[in-house]
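Follow-up to my earlier ticket, as requested here are the two runs.
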Amino acid sequence: MKDIKYSKSYSTQEIHFTGGLRGSLTNRGWALFPASEDPDSDALVFETPEAHYIFATRECGLRHIGTCIHYRNGDNSPPMSVWEPGKRDPSNGLNAADSWRAIAHQATVAGDNLYSECATYISVCLKVSGLRLRDVSNKYRDQLNWALAERRESGAWFSNIALLDLYADFHSLVSELSSARDHLAKLAAIHAGAPDRIDSLARLEDWLEKPANLVCVNQPLITLLLSASGTAEKPNWLRRLGALRNEMLHRIPMGANKSVSGLILQDVSTSQGTIKTIRLAEPPSNNAVAKQDPDSLIEFSQLCTNLEHLCRTAQRIAKYPAEIPRFTNSTTS
């Protein structure tokens, strides 16, 4: 391996929460911000990461979205951001995206190129969906900061041109999540010996409805997908993902959907005072708040978590192990 270079790198991490809030480690402790409209005192600081997390999730009612780790390797190298969706899988120390990349490598070593391609596609879509979730969270943070700087009134609906960027990121996010779902369905079809044309969850479900293929519903990977999907009468989260995708990409673009056409600030009472969060909302004339539960960021972050867990479970029944290649330095005398 002649193209491997060693050098110093620097990293910082940002913990993303719903509502536009962030956490990070400072020289005073773990900070949660913004906590007020005063730019000189807009953070709450906690001694331990546990106290920081408990306050954000329990007292503020925020959802932990993920952690973005920013790496910098000198002034002349591009920065790199790595999205971590949560705690890594204890079985191999990897997240789902990295596990499926490892499976792709093992499939390549075994000469199974089709399986390797599918596993690679799953990995890439999971990686990109994480980055798109990060971008959505960044837009919420920006909107919260702007609203606080302008001293917007809590509960008052408002809109601005920057919402178009937020909608674009949501569209990209739902597309990547759905692509990961369909690549996993393609892999399940391979396990079941289905024809090559079965390359999405919808086509897999249609194929399984034929009497000759009913026995394949007991194939472990297919069982896993069908359980996450549910039925038309009793839909589960994976079917909800499909419904959101079809609505946003085929029926009502998010930028034209009145139910998410603006923003409002919300007050959260805590032991440290009032914390403000931001969310998408309908105009007040449409009785917005009563209809807007959960917020789009909350729902999509939950879908991302569900897909992460689904792909982690699926990796355990893949044809190849999620083992990363190991490099050794051998010398000869």
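Run two:
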Amino acid sequence: MKTLFRGAVAAVALVSMSGVAHAQTNERHYAGIIPIVNIPYTSTNPSGLALLGLEVGLLAGVGTRYTAEADAPSNTTTATPTVTVAFNLSGTVTKDCSFYAGNNANATNIDFGVIGVRTGNNENVNDAFDMVGPAEAEIESLTAGCNFNNTVSLAKTNGIQGMVNTAPGGYDTNEFQANIPYEVDAAWTGVAQNAVTTGSPQSLSVATNQGSNSIGQGAWRSAMQIDINAPVAPLALVAGTYQDTLTLTLSAI
């Protein structure tokens, strides 16, 4: 009998089904002619008594057999055609507030010089020694702000007394005073606390009858201007040195 493959060449295809569950090859084929009766037969993957009979026939010189077996170890773990990996990125930015206040301590010494009073001997007695006009100062920093929610505050050390003459000597309290109240106005560009929006003009004022004031802000950076104005005092001023400390505080929350 001719071979089971009828062509002149038997081509064996090796197939790897990567990532796909696939039964491994285990083929057993028989063919032959039953003696005496001369009847051709074939059998594919027989089992049990049929397989035993065909094998006995082979031992007796009857028929032929074709087998093909393939085996390979399975994946070590369940195959994953798609892999997703999430990378958690993190870093820290420290809270910071900045205010450029010059290069040395002299920059923050605001000296009004001589606060003029009416000294002419031709002044009316009700005007003598009164302030000639308001005392004013302007402070501007082109770099100010905080990079987190923050509080902007202004505080006068002497409170509502303002600038105080600490060595006034004696004086008639009906006619003279030894303090100069003042007001403060600060302005910058920022946003309200916890607001996520475009910056807009912000301001903080401390009136002459206030010792301090504050406002909450979100992160901001801009120039800041601080205007100080001491209006003409209601009474005449005792001679001497008038002082106070105005404190600006930018504090990240």
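The only thing I checked on run two: The first helix runs from residue 48 to 59. Let me know what else you need.
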